[in-house]
């Protein structure tokens, strides 16, 4: 998900506290600074693991449980059951950045089979974003936030996992486990991609989003409907200071530590702000679909349709 950080921003203190979501909450303490910074050429700490060989644990064998992805159709509703046990190799858990152990977490979801674009997008925070055919869910957001020197937690500044400054214990699938044992992806599931042999020779569906639209991994048809292209998202680092004082909100130049360091730039990608687009797929001459990319945010961050309530944390 490498950086040159201003000397006024190098003092960091991390601590773990209770969180209202399943992820352990890690908050970040920054010092104050009144210095003016030139952020026109931001240095990125984005990192993502695309090496499937970094994972060597057969979690099905280790748990003695077979991976489950099951779906049934009733009218216009798709019902999906998973158990959170990946059908591919995973990394070692617990690890230095994540104290949790992977466990079976059986979950049931429903979604429409006739998704439509909504009048406005829905932010993905507060939702399980997607279900993958590997039996694992996707949740890009975290329960890690900025905390100022006065101890105030600012939930408007959410730390992303796809960065090199603070390890949150991701494995080669850009995934980790919650305290409940729930294994979930934050980005490209590299070993699953390798298992499926996805190499750009065809367009491959890997799951469904909570609003019912399909999800494909990075390769999609160009406008000619024949050529497959490797897609990237339209997100870039902002080129102005964060604007905080280091006490109530972070200061310094955006570098990719926070989701809010990025902005969607219209016109630089075929993908919209939710990492989706209309186009030809193996199932349709023209339909809306999401794309998992290898650049930020990797996983879609929002819904273009209406997410089913079964995906809500509430």
From TrEMBL:
Question: InterPro entries this protein is in?
Answer: YHYH_dom (IPR025924)
What is the species listed in this Swiss-Prot or TrEMBL entry?
Flagellimonas meridianipacifica
Which is a Pfam family this sequence falls into? YHYH
UniProt-recorded name of the protein: YHYH protein
The record places domain YHYH at 109-305
| Origin: domain of life | Bacteria
